[in-house]
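pinned: reference chain
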Amino acid sequence: MKFSSAIFLGLSATVNAQDDFTPNYPLIAGYFARTDATEFLTRDLIQAALEDSDTGIGDESCASYDANAELIYEGVGAYWATIPTYRTTESASYNEYPKYYGKDDWVDIWASKAIKKTRTNYKRGNADFGAAFPANYSPGSDCVGFEESLKKGLSYVGQLAELLQLAQKARDAAEIDGCRYKRDGCTDVVEAWDAAAASYVGSLEGTDGNNDPAGTYGKAPYTLADKRCRNYKNCGPGLDESTKDVTANTNTKILALFSAGSLAAWEGDYNQLDKYIRLISNKAAVPLIQGTLRYYYRLSDEEGEDTFSVLDKEVGEGGAFIFGVLPKLWACSSRGVKKAEAQTKVGGGIVGVSAVNYQDIKLALECNYRCLGITCTEVGSLYDGDDSVKPGAAACDDDENGSDTTCSKPSKATKDKCKLFTGKPGVKGRDKIRFDF
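pinned: its structure tokens
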């Protein structure tokens, strides 16, 4: 078959038009960015500077912490105090955080109070850093608790807040500005969406997510998912692997959502973007919950009396993880969040002093998985380096828990044990919404 010259010229014009926006930027852990997201991709380098053991706070000593934390936070890391950098409107997923903490600058408050070693002034969920760490540390690590609170609060929670609002920026540009690539050439929507994906992964994970034995972890939420799935032995497509060369199942889901969202952004479909933002937020809670359960397990006596940790490092890590979990739990159940907060309050007199009630924390979360839009299987059972599941740390059953599908309901036994951990959602109607991947 021969093409006429007119048809050939028409096809060439179509190809050239497509080339204006053809993905030609490096992959972001497999995600195809259509725009240059370097500014957001490389923010993890600022986080790396904070955590540097020579010029940052990474050596865990108070000498380094006191000299460098505020210097970096107010210097190269000055954007941290402005998180989220987009505030014109707030997604329902992000809004759970300022509503719970009662402050728009809740990220900055956490970081600045950790730097100053004082108490936060939130409406709920306060941390008293001055009373948090009873000097249980290894020699030379006298500020390890403050370090963990600061760096993980910023990299895993602050960065999550940032990406949720960058995604909201894309959604708003699609609706408010009427951006449609095919109609008027507007790239704002796709640029903001790519920025959100870049913020989730970061530059240090490379084009492939550094999923090889010799690869190094990054400093963004993507990294947390890859690390925690190894503790729960539920990495990979079958949620049954734990080696470093296997990606977290959570990361695969989230990047699949970002990829689907990229098409919705291209089309300017803000209704679809609303759904993808919520689903990304749901799944991004999984590694935060895994981290919460891992560290508060260590701070409990589930393995026997007098076995609980009071180490500053673990108090700081647990506090940073639950910092990102409490608002989402509160949105589902003010009862559940009170149970969890009573046991995990940084500087509250239990954690770091005596054994926390791990089962209260576990039930507060599990009983609300259905509302949170996640499953027992996604969180998994805690192994934490052992060959068998830790005593008392087995995953709940999705069928019994009512969290396997959007139509499921919890069994009577589950309802009975969850009675004190569910109900009274902090956000009206939040417990009635059903989500599915």
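why pinned: Residues 1-19 have pLDDT under 50 and may be disordered. The chain has 20 helices and no strands.
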